[in-house]
Amino acid sequence: MARTGIAVFLDMLAEFGVRHVFGNPGTTELPLSDALVGDERFHYVLGLQEVPVMAMADGYAMASGSLGVVNVHIACGLGNAMGMLYNAYREGTPLLLTAGQQDRRLKFEEPILGADLAAVARPWTKWSAEVERVEDLPAALRRGVQTALTPPTGPVFLALPLDVQMATSDKLDLSPIRLPDRHVRPPVEAIRRAASLLLEAENPAILAGSRVTEAGGVLELVAVAERLGAPVYCESGTTHGRLPFPCHHPLSGPGLPLWSPEVRARLDEFDVVLVVGMDLLRQYLYHEPSRAVPKHVKLVQIDEDPWQLGKNYQVEVGVIGDSKTSLAELAELLSATATREQTQRAARRAARWSEQHAASREALKQRIAQQRDVRPMTPLTLMGALAHAVTPNTAIVEEAVTTTNTTLERLGAIGEPSGYFGHRGWALGWGLGVALGVKLAWPDRPVLAILGDGAAMYGIQGLWSAAHHRISVTFVIANNAQYEILKVGARGLQLPRAEQNRFLGMDLVEPEIDFVALAQSLGVDACRITEPDELTRRVAESLGSDRPLLIDVPIQRQLPKRLEYG
């Protein structure tokens, strides 16, 4: 039986288990929009602009671990989406991004909105193509989905010409989409060498990243850390991503600092470092010394992505394999081959690190208590208030790096590692939409989004989607009326006017943004809170509510002498 291209597209996605399509429609997407009318297999999540649309799909895919499907308008819509596509590319989020393309019969005439869409998307996707024949659409879809979901995972793009969407054919291969098993075992000899080097270490440490969580390897990482008695450090705030290790575990250390010299100082005491599931290292600004890993440190690196192994720093042992599988085999080998003396050394190390981390956590609590009466609230006071409001199953999305500073992690307030989402790409506007996507993936979990005022304005249209689709996320705006990270960066570069506290284009004043009125105009309840106890109460109430709420919290505007992180 003859079928239209767009009907086949939707049938194959539905059979694969896709239930949400995120989009903002345009003329070249009308066949898709029309086909979705009354199609109860799909929930079409409408966004008013492509930034929140892409971010919602990103959050949904990260939380669900499944494919996020996005449809945007031709050239201009794809252009609006590119910042969020960059984020997804840096995260490795499995997205299928599609855009309508002009009818091919107009192609030679250079029609309105016509462009080489596949070329535009190609730099920030694993695969990008335009479907030229309706008969090729099923194969293109199968290839795209498999490419997106096979490690290293990431976004793919398909341009769908208007006439291909509407064309019919009875010569279509409708074979279902199937995925290979992603759990690639590591080479036996490589894991053996890794275990031997780690057991012989006097003072080992672990650097862990988002891909541990996304591979489902958190418990396996815990087993490795406990067998070694090694502290576990997460990525710097500029690439923080997902939380790969329980923050309340005694071996959980603070995140890596932001700048190379401080990272180097943190790592200097270790002789062997296991790196797993993280990019080593993607730095933000150049500082001397530029090499963040000291020369004497021997690296053992495990990753699904061979591109990451030894990319920036030479490794002693490189292991290509699924993070969960590799960590499980490493933990088993550590247990089986450790001598009695090595086991005792690991226990002594674990006790020492547990005591040090507990003391650090207590010192942080004391600092928060000392700042409690300062108004406007300090960032630490804000984060302390939120720590009292969240529950163990609260999902937390952060896009306010100068405010959050891993405070919730250092307090042990994040109950479950997979429920944390931090920025990795740093195209702004990400957090608000991601929080909506996470809530759609996890409707039974409360979701808290902690957003900087500047970042929130890049994706503020997402509040309308929250109201329209009744997505109950609690948004907290850390409002210091400035782009603080830029000011800190300028001072770090020792720029002369920044040293005099003079900045251009970095203050959000005259007029200041009225987030309460703005949220209410988009259908979301909102309030401004200046007291920490009231903030704790209102956030706790909102996390148990079935309605979205935005809370605007004014915080101190005075720049810190240095940006503390970890």
Report what the structure shows.
The protein has 566 residues and is an alpha/beta fold. It has three domains: 3-169, Thiamin diphosphate (ThDP)-binding fold, Pyr/PP domains (Rossmann fold); 188-357, TPP-binding domain (Rossmann fold); 371-554, Thiamin diphosphate (ThDP)-binding fold, Pyr/PP domains (Rossmann fold). The chain is built from 23 helices and 19 strands. The strands form four sheets. It has a six-stranded parallel sheet, with helices on both faces. A six-stranded parallel sheet has the order 15-14-16-17-19-18, sandwiched between helices. Strands 10-9-11-12-13 form a five-stranded parallel sheet. Strand 2 (20-23), helix 2 (30-36) and strand 3 form a beta-alpha-beta unit. The termini are far apart.
Topology:
Blueprint: E1 3-4, H1 5-16, E2 20-23, H2 30-36, E3 43-46, H3 50-64, E4 68-72, H4 75-91, E5 95-101, H5 117-121, E6 127-130, H6 137-149, E7 156-161, H7 162-166, E8 168-169, H8 188-200, E9 204-208, H9 210-214, H10 218-228, E10 232-233, H11 260-267, E11 272-276, E12 298-303, E13 317-320, H12 323-337, H13 340-370, H14 379-389, E14 395-399, H15 401-404, H16 407-410, E15 420-422, H17 430-441, E16 447-452, H18 453-458, H19 462-468, E17 473-479, H20 484-492, H21 496-499, H22 515-521, E18 525-528, H23 532-543, E19 549-554
